[in-house]
Known about the structure:
The protein is mainly alpha-helical. 91% of the residues lie in helices and 0% in strands.
Amino acid sequence: MESLIDMVFSNPVYLAIAVILAILLIYALIKKVIKLILIIGILLIIYVVYLNYTGQEVPKNIDDLKESVSEKVEKVKEATAESIIEAKESTRKIVEEKVEEKLDKLLGD
C-alpha cells in the first residue's frame, strides 16, 4: 500500500489523475446531496400544501412538523398492518376452501 502511495506522489501524471478522480468523486457526492435536499424540500412543500388543502393545521416549527409526520407514519403503519392481517386471513380462507374442494373430489370419487 505504501509503495502505491509513494508511486502516486512521486509521478506527477499519477498525481494529476488521482486529483482529477478525487475532484470527480467530491463533485458526484455534492451533486447527490443537493439532489437529496431538493427532493426532501419538494416533499415537505407537497406535505404542507396537502395539510393546507385538507384544512388541517400546518406546523409552525420543526418540532411540530416532526410530530405531525410521525403521527401520519404511525397511522400508515397501523393501516398497513391491518390490511396485511386481513389479506392473510382471506388468503387462508381461500386456501382452506380449495383444499376442501380437492379433498372432496379425491375422496368423493
